[in-house]
Amino acid sequence: MSREIKFRGLRVEPQYHQSKWKFGNLLNDKSIGDVGYGLESYQYAQVISESVGQFTGLKDKNGVDGYEGDKVILQYGRHHTAPNGKVREGIIKFDKKLAAFVIAIINSKVIIPFSIVIDFEVIGNIHETK
Fold first, then answer.
1. pLDDT class of 116 with cuts at 50, 70, 90
2. Measured between alpha carbons, how far is 118 from 126 in angstroms, rounded to an integer?
């Protein structure tokens, strides 16, 4: 089974567009584009290179696409909360050593491979929410 390869990035000039994010194919580290019905309708946007993230191929429990840089609440095992009662929050990252997407738990050195995540919910991203 193959997954859809797509990217997103924050537009350099968002005030001229309906969305501050551009979704599509990665043209280079500063441009994302998409193809319409013909090459004459090809559109691209300059994006902030640090904001570019790849789609993980997974959607959260609400059907929202999960991208690198997304902040998430996750469930692994049976609960959304850790033994101390705190909600597990993390950031989606690509781990080069594992060659896989993982969730890095915030304020921890723990990384959780997507293969053991039961459920997650996108609550923001590192580029818009602190």
1. confident
2. 22
pTM for the full model? 0.81
Query: At a CB cut-off of 8 Å and minimum separation 6, what does 55 contact?
Result: 3, 4, 5, 6, 7, 8, 65, 66, 67
Count other Cβ atoms within 10 Å, centred on residue 36. 9
Could you tell me which residues come within 8 angstroms of residue 79 by beta carbon, excluding any fewer than 6 positions away?
A: none
Strand pairing category for 70-76 and 43-46: unpaired
Tens of pLDDT, residue by residue over 72-103, are 998 755 555 555 556 688 999 999 999 999 99
Strands 7-10 and 21-28: antiparallel
